[in-house]
Amino acid sequence: MKTYSTDLRRKLVQAYEHRLGSQRALANAFGVSPSFVKKVLRRYRTTGQLTPKPPNGGQKPRLDATAQAMLQGIVHAQPNSTLEGLCTRVAAATGIRVSVPTMCRVLQRLGISRKQSRPTPVSRIHRAVNRRA
After folding, report:
1. Distance of CA 69 to the CA centre of its chain
2. Which of 3, 40, 116, 126 could form an S-S bond across to 52 if both were Cys, CB 3.0 to 4.6 Å?
3. d(Cα 81, Cα 115) in Å, to the nearest integer?
């Protein structure tokens, strides 16, 4: 979602300072939500700025670079381990518990595929390829 322009924010603050209406009335007049008006006015009062806040980059990853490197080593050593098994190994090694979906997302970010081979038992029946000869 795009942020509202600084020009709109400036007009909103000027209208409020000239007492052209309440916050709710100004929100209806400018076509924005009342919570947006409240946040813009609070930010202007506390910091004196009308520009939108810069993006914060989201939530920090649960597993840092060293834990991710250790996870790559575990997957390389045991490629057929399940996601649950990886979660328990990482928790035992680092003390950081992660859920199965989180483990799946971390592996996807690292570029590690989770294609597992199913162990099939060797057939006991020895089949001759060419019995006519």
Report:
1. 19
2. 3
3. 10
Give the domain ranges of the chain: 6-47, 65-110
What's the whole-model pTM score?
0.51
Task: Quick: pLDDT tens for 27-57.
Answer: 999 999 999 999 999 999 999 999 998 888 8
Average pLDDT, the chain: 88
Q: What angle do CA 7, 8, 14 make, to 5 degrees?
A: 90
68 Cβ partners below 8 Å, 6+ apart?
106, 110
User: For residues 49 and 71, what is the distance between their CA atoms, to the nearest angstrom?
Assistant: 44
Amino acid (one-letter) located at 57: G
Alpha helices in the chain (DSSP H): 6-17, 23-30, 34-47, 65-77, 83-94, 100-110
Instruction: Name the token pair of 54.
Output: 């810069």
